Amino acid sequence: MDEIRSWVEDSPYSHFLGVRLDHLDDTSARLILPYQAANSNPGQALHGGCAASLGAIGGQAVARAVLGPDSGPWHTAQMQVSYLAAAIGEEVVAEAELLRRGKELCFVAVDVRTREGKPIASVTTTVRGRMGAAPAETVPTAGDHGEADPGPMGPHISKVPFIGHRGIAVEHMTGGTSRLVMPFGENNADLAGGVHEGAVLALLDTTGAMGSWAESGPGPYKASTVSMQLQNLAPAPKSDLVAYGRCVQRDDAIFWTDVEVAGASDGRVVSRGTVLYRIVT
């Protein structure tokens, strides 16, 4: 349990966010995330990547406790995040509960709420313990067209506090496609040495949102991530990452954007998923 607490609280990424492990046993965990401006969008709204990170951290904490310390390395093989409401300048609490244990898989549900009980996000995860297996040989990314046009919005995205602290920058953001890069750095690291899953999820979420904006174009709109489904193919390496987004469908205010996150140097996919985004006037 001490090793799990250290991973939760001392991993540079989660330490920067301010995540605290308030409770842990072999079937549940409770995480607390105090409000701080560095985790926010404009208007003091908690960034969706933070809520997704709490889901990943809570799911892994329970899975590590259930499967045991020799079952690693671990990664969230599948995750579904539904964003229910915004937390505005508020502390949030994540309650993780084991749904089922398999031989190497754990199914965990995580509810993210404010201290007052307002639902913020509902998360389900499937966490895999690799049981000491050799690193996976992941597939190469399909990449994109190679164009580099950040459009009118791209240069401003890194000014959002949470995104800026990740070092995320927009290389391309027009014509329904997006490409974002995130350097490996102290603010994004896992205690094991690679990129923290939470930082990977933040990059995927942001790339999906930018792919939607690349389809709609800028305007005086309100927007938010509705949900995202993703699969992490393996623990993320100690590497800069690049993410490719492509809006595959638009239905009025709703946008579906597929995203691949890959190592910037080897082009191997780390994570993939679909972001459901909403832009309204």
Protein model, in words:
The relative contact order is 0.15. The longest helix is centred in the first third of the chain and has 20 residues, at 48-67. The chain has two domains: 2-129, Hotdog Thioesterase (Thiol Ester Dehydrase, Chain A, Roll), CATH 3.10.129; 154-280, Hotdog Thioesterase (Thiol Ester Dehydrase, Chain A, Roll), CATH 3.10.129. The chain contains six helices and twelve strands. The chain has a twelve-stranded antiparallel β-sheet. By secondary structure, it is of the alpha+beta class.
Task: Give the topology string: H per helix, E per strand.
Answer: HHEEHEEEEHHEEHEEEE
Q: Architecture of the largest domain, according to CATH?
A: Roll
The whole-angstrom Rg is 17 Å
The number of E-state strands comes to 12
Q: Enumerate how many helices there are, as a single number.
A: 6
Mean pLDDT figure: 96
Strand content: 35-45%
Which structural category do the helix and sheet elements fall into? alpha+beta
The CATH topology label of the largest domain is Thiol Ester Dehydrase, Chain A
Overall morphology: globular
Helix content: 10-25%
Low-confidence stretches are: none
Number of domains: 2
Summarize this structure briefly.
The protein is α+β, with helices and mostly antiparallel strands and 281 residues long. The chain has helices at 2-10, 12-17, 48-67, 154-157, 161-166, 197-216, and strands at 20-24, 28-33, 74-83, 92-101, 105-114, 119-129, 169-174, 177-182, 222-232, 241-251, 254-263, 269-280. It has 6 helices and 12 strands.
